[in-house]
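Quarterly update from the structural biology core.
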Amino acid sequence: MLSVIVRSALHTYRGLWLPGQAAVRAMSSSGGATPPYTTLAISHPAEAVTHVELHRPEKHNAMNKAFWSEMVDCFNDIAVDPDCRVVVVSGAGRTFTAGIDLMDMAGDVLQPQGDDTARVSWNLRKTIVKYQETFSVIERCPKPVVVAVHGPCVGGGVDLITACDIRLCTQDAWFQVKEVDIGLAADVGTLQRLPKVIGSRSLVNELALTARRMYADEAKSSGLVSRVFADKDALMAAALEMAAEIAGRSPVAVQGTKINLIYSRDHSVAEGLDYMATWNMSMLQTQDVMKSAQASMEKKSPKTITFSKL
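Predicted structure, tokenized:
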């Protein structure tokens, strides 16, 4: 029943705000985290759409020890779930995330175990690599990930959103690469991904070295986010509408597009073209191409086509 309500709301989104807002309220996870998770609430607000909500609102969605492993488990499951074609990530409460939970994480970071310097260093490196996987798993997931940011997005939050495919935010959102303020260099993705997202090395350096806040308008003009919305209800309605548009396309086409976009980002044009040719020599052999072409000739939306699960 919830899926029907949300699909109806998305269909009328451009003309009628109230149903869209009702759909957003309907997907609220006021009941708490979704077992077995303790920091995430998982819902399915529309067909083929999975909503992952950071859910420690009383702690401003700060990232504790459980969060770092639960995100890996969650996105590994999503990656192989044939019923999911697109993911929306958001935060519960008034804050998207306050970043790392320093009180909870201090032991792992400040008191690594080992009998000598070499072993302490080795164990600390394993811990850092483990935390890096928390966000790399989002980027590696073949399903597109739309992240909806409201309010503060601090420290690890920037690591998280730069691993996502599409970034949206509210007018009151702000972003901060906070790590230099707590005496360390960001080590779980921001320094590697943010330069590829924004494109201005000078601006990236400024943000990372000064820890100043970037507000919504600057985030949009710099390319960190693609759209800005008045409030969280409008943001979530738009994120769900976008997710429904993506979910309505061929999963072979959509997932192939994400994988090749990421590959091309990290390789030369020639290498990207070669990889694309190798990819499509098999992926073009699908009924989805003929179904989509037929719908296009008949001036029908791709969302009217029934695609097989992938």
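The longest helix spans residues 117-140.
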